[in-house]
Write a structure and sequence with these properties.
The complex is a heterodimer of chains A (182) and B (267). Chain A is mainly alpha-helical and 182 residues long. Chain A is built from six helices and no strands. Classes of the chains: A mainly alpha (182), B alpha+beta (267). Chains A and B meet through α1, α3, α4, α5 and α6 of A and α1, α2 and β1 of B.
Chain lengths: 182, 267
């Protein structure tokens, strides 16, 4: 497949993958007692913050936050801004600590999850919505197991995707070729 | 790079920004049917397991149900007599007739994945006349309010969600207040409840109709606790909603309701 063909195929393929994941998130992958699940778009944004430069992180986190906010009941703007801020804070951590590899990505995704939830709850309180604090904490910790599993198993998928579509060669990519999946 | 944090601020300033309708609709054509299929498939699997594999205790349950039916049949006879008597008295007093709803039934196909809200997707949408802010009820009482609509699907927020409020009254004492969700599936809060109001544990709460969303007289729940602080003009009470979200599968969206239909109008 040529580079142009790959570029043409990538976006529809990505959309289809996200939509199938979202369908499963809505109906199948869920915690009991309405505790929700970490969304796949959040995982992608965490990976973007991990693997891309500032400009791309800002632009792509906006795009994926919009894609992820299409199925939420509360105002969309809150979710979009929470995702973007979480991505930027995570990017700061990546830049400061020079993180690489799968284990670092898992830890970073956990941090992203906590930052995202904290910002979301703070913003939801402004409009008198969102869960109470005890429920919020039980939700964060209950979702943690999914966050770790998703981050661990999706990381190789993300790496392979980048390799297939030659994103590791991008000007803005911060992935080193020696990083690999480990 | 320095402008990056400003973009999210724009979204906070306009949290209820116009949604990307085109994208929402496009993904709704794919995401929601798949999730509907998955939900019904998983429910079907559970149903087969319950009905054909786990039959232990079915005979005992059947006998209990037969006894319950006998008891309910006698209650039904009494109620029919009371209904006829009520109709006769209503016509004598020229009181308004029963409520009339224009409604559409839907099945719950999915939950809001974020977990922050108690939101649920149902398989009826704007193509069936469903609009935002329409009330959602079930045979047991108030369920929630429509928050978003797609062509064939809608998203409603449940009564138990903190962002959901409904105006209610106590059947026994007619005390009026606002019922707000507590974010947990089993409880709701009573707000602006007058300190002098007569409220007791076990009281039935129904909709008052004053919020202009829910028609009057739909069960909301039962009072489970009442607490009067030492000072203040209000008292605190907690309500257990009459609808348990964990077992909810079908709901009805009320598209329009006509509260007052006098006997003359009916004739």
């Amino acid at each position: 497949m040529t580079q142009t063909q790959k570029k043409l195929v990538e976006i529809p393929l990505l959309l289809m993958a996200i939509w199938i994941f979202q369908a499963l998130e809505l109906s199948l992958i869920k915690l009991p007692f309405f505790l929700g699940v970490p969304q796949v778009t959040s995982m992608i944004i965490a990976y973007i913050a991990f693997s891309r430069g500032w400009k791309t992180t800002t632009a792509l986190s906006l795009v994926f936050a919009i894609l992820g906010a299409s199925n939420v009941a509360y105002p969309t703007g809150i979710y979009i801004s929470a995702h973007m801020w979480a991505a930027l804070f995570t990017k700061m951590a990546v830049t400061a600590l020079a993180l690489e590899g799968r284990n670092s990505f898992v830890l970073l995704t956990i941090a992203f999850h906590f930052i995202l939830k904290a910002i979301t709850l703070s913003l939801l309180q402004l409009i008198n919505a969102g869960p109470t604090l005890p429920l919020f904490f039980s939700q964060i910790f209950a979702q943690l197991i999914f966050v770790v599993l998703f981050a661990y198993f999706l990381f190789p998928v993300f790496i392979r995707w980048d390799e297939f579509f030659d994103h590791s060669m991008d000007e803005d990519s911060t992935l080193s070729h020696s990083v690999g999946i480990r | 790079m320095f402008a990056s944090p400003l973009i999210p601020i724009l979204f906070v300033m306009a949290p209820d920004m116009p949604r990307l309708r085109l994208y929402d609709h496009a993904q709704s054509w794919i995401v929601h049917p798949i999730s509907e299929l998955v939900t019904f498939a998983s429910r079907g699997g559970t149903s087969i397991l319950d009905h054909y594999v786990l039959l232990a205790g079915a005979a005992k349950e059947r006998d209990e149900l037969k006894r319950e039916i006998d008891s309910l049949e006698s209650q039904l006879l009494n109620l029919q007599e009371m209904k006829e008597e009520n109709g006769r008295l209503r016509s004598l007093l020229n009181l308004p007739d029963e409520k009339k709803f224009e409604s559409v039934a839907g099945k719950i196909i999915a939950e809001d994945p974020s977990g922050e809200s108690l939101g649920f997707f149902i398989n009826v949408g704007s193509n069936m006349g469903v609009k935002e802010r329409m009330p959602v009820i079930s045979s047991r009482g108030v369920v929630g309010t429509i928050r978003r609509t797609f062509p064939n699907y809608s998203l409603f927020v449940a009564l138990q969600d903190p962002s959901h409020i409904v105006d209610g009254i106590i059947v026994r004492s007619r005390s009026q207040f606002v019922v707000q969700g507590k974010g947990r599936s089993l409880t709701g809060n009573l707000k602006y409840l007058d300190r002098a109001a007569d409220v007791k544990v076990g009281d039935l709460v129904i909709t008052s109709g004053l919020d202009q969303i829910f028609p009057k007289g739909i069960p909301v729940g039962f009072i489970v606790s009442v607490r009067r602080p030492r000072a203040g003009v209000t008292q605190n009470a907690t309500l257990r909603p009459s609808v348990d979200l964990s077992y909810l599968e079908e709901v009805v969206v009320i598209k329009s309701h006509q509260e007052i239909t006098t006997i003359e109008e009916t004739l």
